[in-house]
């Protein structure tokens, strides 16, 4: 099946120019998947304070909830005029693209493979993460959930590098603080991690990536999990690497790309072909 009218992809706006500063990992998963499939699309940039309104207007229900049961409104969403469909979860979007456009672009997003990576963390996450719902691609669904948990456990390293639109910065920072469920006197700046605590978290990140690297080393022809063949699992990791590249200090990003014989730097660079912002 081919699409004559471009798919509309809704991403989270950051500071101008938004196409140069986008860093949200779940929308990045969708962008990489759309480009992998070679499908025509356009991006609609939505400021974070407007996401709930936009998602509701598109009649796309929220796919996650906070611990208190309230809805978590987020992006991405894609609207596909070819099928009159709207899909509002990054994993569900990838499954949709594979099912509707199975041979488009670079081909199969979900080639069979074993993805037995598990991340465990002692503390509960306050922000809702991807869920492992029943899926025709269950290996990938479990991998997506575990990768999200693994990187989210280290996202505090990135918060100082978040880029905000000055017009909405204070509103967005207050929303992030509210989502974290911390005392109301907490400021966004209080999330910054420095000194010994930062070095400890960087070591934890390095160790986490080391455990993940064992999957990539099963096929040393690389840089992908299946050697020279990219899949949605690579895009999941690549989306988080895009986020880290955009938000970590340059010297720390250079460290990340050098760890484990440069494996994740090579993965990031190999996915550049699917990283065009349209």
UniProtKB/TrEMBL annotation:
* Domain annotation GST N-terminal: ranges: 14-105
**InterPro entries, per this entry?**
Glutathione-S-Trfase_C_sf (IPR036282), Glutathione_S-Trfase_N (IPR004045), GST_UstS-like_C (IPR054416), Thioredoxin-like_sf (IPR036249)
Offer one Pfam family short name for this entry.
GST_C_7
Origin superkingdom:
Eukaryota
Name of the protein in question: GST N-terminal domain-containing protein
């Amino acid at each position: 099946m081919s699409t004559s009218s471009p798919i509309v992809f809704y991403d989270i706006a950051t500071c101008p120019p938004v196409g140069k500063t986008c860093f949200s990992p779940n929308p990045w998963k969708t962008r990489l998947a759309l480009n992998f499939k070679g499908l025509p699309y356009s991006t609609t940039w939505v400021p974070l304070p407007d996401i709930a309104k936009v998602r509701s207007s598109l009649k796309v229900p929220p796919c996650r909830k906070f611990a208190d049961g309230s809805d978590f409104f987020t992006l991405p969403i894609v609207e596909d005029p070819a099928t009159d469909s709207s899909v509002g979860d990054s994993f569900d979007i990838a499954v949709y693209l594979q099912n509707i456009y199975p041979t488009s672009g670079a081909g199969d997003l979900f080639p069979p493979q074993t993805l037995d990576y598990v991340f465990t963390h002692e503390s509960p996450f306050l922000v809702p993460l991807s869920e492992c719902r029943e899926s025709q691609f269950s290996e990938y669904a479990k991998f997506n959930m575990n990768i999200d948990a693994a990187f989210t456990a280290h996202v505090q390293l990135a918060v100082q590098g978040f880029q905000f639109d000055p017009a909405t910065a204070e509103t967005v920072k207050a929303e992030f603080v509210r989502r974290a469920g911390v005392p109301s006197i907490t400021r966004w700046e209080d999330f910054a991690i420095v000194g010994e605590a930062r070095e400890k978290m960087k070591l934890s990140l390095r160790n986490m990536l080391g455990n993940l690297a064992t999957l990539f080393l099963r096929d040393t022809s690389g840089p992908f999990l299946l050697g020279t063949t990219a899949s949605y699992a690579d895009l999941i990791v690549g989306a988080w690497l895009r986020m880290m590249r955009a938000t970590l200090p340059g010297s720390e990003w250079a460290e990340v790309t050098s760890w484990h014989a440069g494996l994740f730097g090579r993965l990031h660079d190999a996915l550049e072909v699917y990283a065009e912002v349209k």
